[in-house]
Amino acid sequence: MKLFTPGPTPVPLQVNEAVAAPMIHHRSPEFSKLFGEVRSKLADWMGTKGPSLIFSSSGTGAMEAAAGSLFSPKDHVITVESGKFGQRWTQLAKYFDLDVETIEVEWGRALDPNVLSEKLKPETKGVFIQACETSTGVYHPVQVLAKEIKKKSQALFVVDAITALGVHDLDMERDHIDVMIGGSQKALMCPPGLAVMGLRQEVLRHVRKDAGFYFSLAKELKNQMENKTAYTPAVSLIRGLHVALTMMETEGKEAVFARHQSMQKQTRAAFRKMGLELFNRDEDASHGITSVEVGDRFDVKAWLSHIKKEYGLWLAGGQDHLDGRIFRFSHMGAVYPQDLSEALEIIDQSLRKNPFQVL
Q1: Cα 23 from Cα 272, distance rounded (Å)
Q2: 120-154 burial, b for 16+ CB within 10 Å, e for fewer?
Q3: Contacts of 86 (CB under 8 A, 6+ apart)
Q4: How far apart are CA 326 and CA 22, in angstroms?
Q5: CATH superfamily of 253-352
Q6: Residue boundaries of the structural domains of the chain
Q7: How far apart are CA 276 and CA 286, in angstroms?
Q8: Rounded to an integer, what distance in angstroms lies between the CA atom of residue 333 and that of residue 194?
Q9: Are 136 and 83 in contact (CB under 8 A)?
């Protein structure tokens, strides 16, 4: 089975071997050394001079930690909804009783910086957004948005980069991203189960000591700055992440980003050649996910089941109102040009066969 889903993504053999290695104790010098090295590598990939943190959870755990530990009830915050995971920011903000103002963007389109600028107020405390909205494949211009935020407010810019970290060239210090969140199961080439977070040094004064229990930034900062954790960590996954980050370092940042951009262009060109309609405009498209709008042209759910059963190719459908309307094809993480070419050829062949003939 070959995974081309937007998470989980393929896990390299070396990473799987590290995950399966004999267990070590999480309160040992060996683990502390490993944990410190992983945190250092993460900080480098996120581009922060501040601390990086690791949570044994899905990415939503780190989202909850950010919303709950950095803001107080009634703080004015802005959430950007351009898909299912933007809606999650709104849900979290409401859960913590923040004063939420939501910008709704058509699913599949990027946020216009001017729209955000009009919503910002001097009292705005935070702006929550996805760098890449996984449910649609759209990529928001976070560097431009950050400039608008800093011009008009002192708001913290909190970016869910779960499907952008390791795909797009993002640097927290350079791009003025205050908080960045990632997940192990995307371009970090690991199994699901770890959420990662980068914080700029200036953000630490906003951390509430009375907020959260398991997802408490105060607790985790206190412990992880000493390369230990507040609670039992996912030791095997952290060991796998160490191997994955080392592999990414060996390839090099520029090469990793260039590979993803090149594969995005190849994918979009191939789908257009197949006569398929792309869901995102070129200027709004993620480098890690390509979404295709099927509409009523053929039964996308049946086709996804067929291509999985007959060819061993695992793609993803749409979510919420896009269920049955689009399919999503991931080319991030441990996906390389030969893998991509083979998958695109299979997709082309399968679409030409009844009952899925669309060309």
Answers
A1: 48
A2: beeebbbbbbbbbbbbbbbbbbbbebbebbeebbe
A3: 79, 80, 105, 129, 130, 133
A4: 42
A5: Aspartate Aminotransferase, domain 1 (3.90.1150.10)
A6: 14-250, 253-352
A7: 17
A8: 15
A9: yes
pTM: 0.96
pLDDT (average), residues 196-200: 99
Contact 129, 160 (CB under 8 A): yes
DSSP 281: -
The answer to whether the CB of 359 falls within 8 A of the CB of 352 is yes
Please name which of 214, 242, 162, 244 lies closest in space to residue 55, comparing C-alpha atoms. 214
Q: What proportion of the chain, given as a percentage, has pLDDT over 70?
A: 98
Please give the single-letter amino acid code of residue 5. T
How far is CA 176 from its chain centroid? 18
The residue type found at 77 is V
Q: What span, in angstroms and rounded, lies between the C-alpha atoms of 184 and 204? A: 24
Closest to 170 in 3D by CA, of 47, 263, 297, 1: 47
CA–CA separation, 208 and 12 (whole Å)? 38
Dihedral Cα 196, 219, 142, 280, nearest 10 deg: 50
Whether 253-352 and 14-250 are alike in CATH topology: the answer is no
CA–CA dist 356, 266 (Å, integer): 23
Q: Could you tell me the pLDDT band of residue 353, with boundaries at 50, 70 and 90?
A: confident
pLDDT tens readout for residues 207-222: 999 999 999 999 999 9
Cα–Cα distance measured from residue 259 to residue 269, given in angstroms and rounded to the nearest whole number:
15
Written out in words, the top-level CATH class of the domain with range 14-250 is alpha beta
pLDDT interval class at 296 (50, 70, 90): confident
Say if residue 222 is exposed, middle or buried (CB neighbours under 10 Å; 0-12, 13-18, 19+): middle
